Amino acid sequence: MSPSNASPFQHIVIAAHPLVKEALAEGRKVASFLQRHGVEAYAGLLDAPDLRRRVQEGQADLLIALGGDGTMLRAGHLCAPHGVPVLGINMGHFGFLIEVERSEWRNTLRQLLLGEAWLEERMMLEAHLYRGKAMLHRWDVVNEVVVSRGQYVRPIKVTAFVDDLLLARYVADGLIAATPTGSTAYALAAGGPILPPELRNILLMPVAPHLSVDRAVVLSEGSTVTLEVGVSHEAVVSVDGHDPVSLADGDRIHVRANRYPLKFVRFRGRGYFYRNLTSYMNWNPTVEKESLRGDSR
């Protein structure tokens, strides 16, 4: 295909997770395929300075991430602030955010070159940690903000305010503030509801509540939530599974919708989420292993 193909993506970065076996080698094959079709393509490791610079300096109009859902989260943190869409190629097990299986990427990229794709926008959050009047940290959030106990097996107290109005006081192992994307991650494991990706609501979900509110709450679109920590022992906050940050008594985490969305490239119909959901809920690695053992007998 000539450089005048129908795709709006002519400068593509292919990012491989550094710890995913064979991801970089596969990424180079993807780059070579795109170059043969007249597209400027660069392959590298997701954490490589040169790759990140290309995205940050506007030299990429699409990033293809090779790995699993964790790779998609890292790619989202890099790309969303710069408006760069992300397309995922699965190099691992089941990936809820991943669009393309490893065996299918050639056919899918041909669709991309023909302009047969659409962009899905998902709400992100921004979170700020305050101690008194001082802001200590700011995060962009794809999945969730988690306030939780540290190494001590003792609950923490978290007071939640919505738009400065008291919502609830929790005594629990933790409290999750999640995006709809995050509703299928840690929040789902904690027993929370599943929110479709087009919503722009924050989900609050307690983890192992102790004689306190034990139900998830879905906040109105546009709401800001403040989580105020009351502890006499260790408590931490973690964003999208990153390293936890220690909290002190009285610390406050403000969470609200981010000013920019995370964009995913999609090819399947807009009802894909519910079809994926069925597969996700029926997929159980323990059952799968038992089935394989039975087949080998």
Condensed summary:
The protein is α+β, with helices and mostly antiparallel strands and 297 residues long. It has 2 domains: 11-116, Rossmann fold; 125-256, Probable inorganic polyphosphate/atp-NAD kinase, domain 2 (Tumour Suppressor Smad4, Sandwich). It has 7 helices and 18 strands.
List keywords for this structure.
single chain; 297 residues; alpha+beta; Rossmann fold; Tumour Suppressor Smad4; elongated
Structural class: alpha+beta
- CATH fold description of the largest domain: Tumour Suppressor Smad4
In CATH, what is the class of the largest domain?
Mainly Beta
Order of helices and strands: EHEHEHEEHEEEEEEHEEEEEEEHH
Provide the CATH superfamily of the largest domain. Answer: Probable inorganic polyphosphate/atp-NAD kinase, domain 2
CATH architecture identity of the largest domain: Sandwich
Strand content is 35-45%
Rounded radius of gyration (Å) = 21 Å
Provide the helix percentage: 10-25%
Largest sheet: 11 strands, antiparallel
- Globally, the shape reads elongated
Q: How many separate domains?
A: 2
Number of helices: 7
Mean pLDDT, to the nearest integer, reads 90
Low-confidence stretches: 286-297
Cα distance spanning the termini: 50 Å
Number of strands: 18
